From TrEMBL:
UniProt-listed PANTHER family: ATPASE AAA-TYPE CORE DOMAIN-CONTAINING PROTEIN, ATPASE-LIKE PROTEIN
Highest taxon listed in the record's lineage: Bacteria
Parts of the chain that traverse the membrane: none
Gene Ontology molecular-function annotations: ATP binding; ATP hydrolysis activity
InterPro entries: ATPase_AAA_core, P-loop_NTPase
The protein, known as: ATPase AAA-type core domain-containing protein
Span of domain ATPase AAA-type core: 49-93, 231-352
Record lineage: Bacteria, Pseudomonadati, Pseudomonadota, Alphaproteobacteria, Rhodobacterales
Length: 403
């Protein structure tokens, strides 16, 4: 469960933006939609976050923040040294010469080293990246803090400075690993990613959590192709069975999808009622192809209790099907592990069924900088308002300006 993001000097986000999804105890109950932040918390956060705004307003960059942080803690150690990390600053000379700061607050295991533990508590992970010089990036600071139930405030898990010196809590279990860590820690790599190479159990636990974030936002040039996609289906009968179950349920006109081997490669074969022969994937409708491509991201999040961060979900899913996809995340049978969906969308019809706490709006000023705010942050917004009508009418901002 991610419930707070702070973004500064990252793509179109020039000035510090704070996305706080915390919902206080006075807000009416919405079972399955507004859920407990962590064990013992009286505050809640939404399981579905829908991001609206005009084209190029910065919607994708909210999702990129999540995708980049997930990549950084998992793979930055493997990134080629002295090359730029896969992100952009706000594209002015002034901001290129300024640091980038990203922070994420989430619910994590209170005792991640104890097998079988389920109690959760708040964690805050923060990284600050250096100005850009063309000779690679550098971490100015990196930290992970948490607040277990017996603590009155956030306490350090680890802190790292620009010189690469690391301070860690005793329970992290570094011991002799600390000197090894500081010797191999590159200026542009995460402490967590580096500790993972040393098989540190805490780092491996957090890398596993980061791996439960699935996204269609591409940070590097290595885009998944249909061969990779179909290989994944071929290797996972459970995934293919789930796809067939859901594709029949939402009535895309497909009776069954089979993954066949042809010339040593997997191909998808679509059987339709009323047709004598199956159809191959390249000849299927665009909407059906896109559903097949995006489905593993949704399935994996629901199966693991992870986060699905999907850019332009309405491009992949027909507008009449979208409400059903969102419903999966509030259904305890479909979402038993508490998965969360972050999505950008232009499908304004969804606003009729969303809570104000589930909606973020991005608006880009004439200076090119994005502002991000929640619908619930706007003073005077009532729960029974016609969000669709008011959004389209420009009451909340985030709509294209024509003329």
């Amino acid at each position: 469960m991610i419930y707070k993001l702070e973004i500064e000097n990252f793509y179109s986000v020039r000035d510090r933006q704070v996305i706080d999804l915390t919902v206080g105890r006075r807000v009416p109950e919405e079972p399955g939609r507004l859920v407990q932040l962590h064990t013992g918390s009286e505050d809640r956060a939404p399981r579905v976050i829908a991001i609206y705004g005009a084209n190029a307003s910065g919607k994708s960059n909210v999702l990129r923040t999540i995708a980049f942080l997930s990549w950084f803690v998992q793979y930055s150690f493997e990134h080629k040294a002295r090359t730029l990390l896969p992100y952009q600053k706000f594209l002015t000379a002034e901001q290129e010469a300024a640091p980038t700061r990203l922070s994420i607050t989430f619910a994590g295991l209170e005792d991640p080293l104890k097998e079988g533990t389920t109690a959760t508590c708040p964690y805050v992970y923060t990284v600050e990246l250096s100005p850009r010089s063309g000779n690679g990036d550098m971490v100015l600071s990196e930290s992970l803090h948490y607040r277990p139930r017996d603590a009155a405030r956030m306490v350090r898990v680890f802190e790292r400075n620009a010189a690469g010196h690391v301070k860690a809590a005793a329970w992290v279990g570094l011991g002799r690993e600390l000197s090894v860590l500081e010797n191999i820690l590159r200026p542009d790599a995460s402490v967590i990613s580096t500790l993972g190479q040393l098989n540190n159990q805490l780092a491996l636990s957090f890398m596993q959590s980061a791996n439960a974030i699935d996204t269609n936002i591409l940070l590097t040039r290595f885009e998944q192709n249909d061969l990779d996609l179909l290989t994944g289906y071929a290797r996972s009968p459970e995934l293919l069975n789930a796809l067939n179950r859901d594709i029949r349920r939402i009535d895309l006109g497909v009776d069954e999808i089979q993954i066949l081997a042809e010339n040593g490669a997997p191909v998808a074969s679509f059987t339709h009622a009323g047709l004598d022969r199956p159809i191959r994937m390249p000849f299927e409708s665009h909407g059906t192809q896109q559903f097949v491509r995006i489905y593993p991201t949704i399935y994996r999040a629901l199966a693991l209790g992870g986060v699905a961060a999907i850019d332009e979900l309405d491009v992949a899913i027909h507008p009449s099907v979208l409400p059903e996809i969102l419903r999966w995340f509030s259904d305890p049978d479909r979402n038993p592990h508490g998965a969360q969906l972050w999505m950008s969308s232009h499908a304004v019809s969804l606003l009729d069924g969303l809570l104000k706490e589930e909606v973020l709006i991005c608006e880009k000023g004439t200076d090119g900088a994005s502002e991000i705010y929640g619908l619930g942050d706007i003073k005077g917004i009532r729960r029974d308002e016609n969000f669709l009508q008011n959004y389209v009418g420009g009451v909340y901002g985030g709509v294209p300006s024509i003329g």
